[in-house]
Amino acid sequence: MRILVGFTTTPEGQAALRHAVTEARQHGGTLLVAHHEQVAPPVGDVPARVRSVEQHLGGLREELRASGVEVCVRTQLGVGSVAAELVRTAEDENVDLIVIGLRRRSPVGKLVLGSTAQEVLLTAPCPVLAVKRDDAAAAGRDAG
């Protein structure tokens, strides 16, 4: 089983990664961790943002490998939507499952701002597991 997780350094992204690892362990699957950084001209300080994410992912890569999960980590820059890039990666890599994190937003916020999760859910070529952040774990991290 090939599992793609759309990773961000947010509590929602962390929750998605935890669930994706669980799925990979349960099914003896391969985990593809993808982070897409959407950029628009002028590019600004994109290299610094990418370095920060790659440092974070580097530590995760070693931790995941030590846990016995086969993992591939990929960071991409692009002007396309994060959802479109995630779906494209799923198609290119022929994945069996996409795991994404969900933010809590009001219905009006979703209507006005759109939803990456909604776009992935509607256009993905495979099943999508949408994960809410673990508020207890997030509260513990925020307090510490």
UniProtKB/TrEMBL annotation:
Record domain UspA: where: 2-132
Matches recorded under Pfam families: Usp
InterPro entries: Rossmann-like_a/b/a_fold (IPR014729), Universal_stress_UspA (IPR006015), UspA (IPR006016)
Family: Belongs to the universal stress protein A family.
Protein's recorded name: Universal stress protein
CDD domains: USP-like
Gene3D superfamilies in the record: HUPs
Classification via PANTHER family: STRESS RESPONSE PROTEIN NHAX, UNIVERSAL STRESS PROTEIN UP12
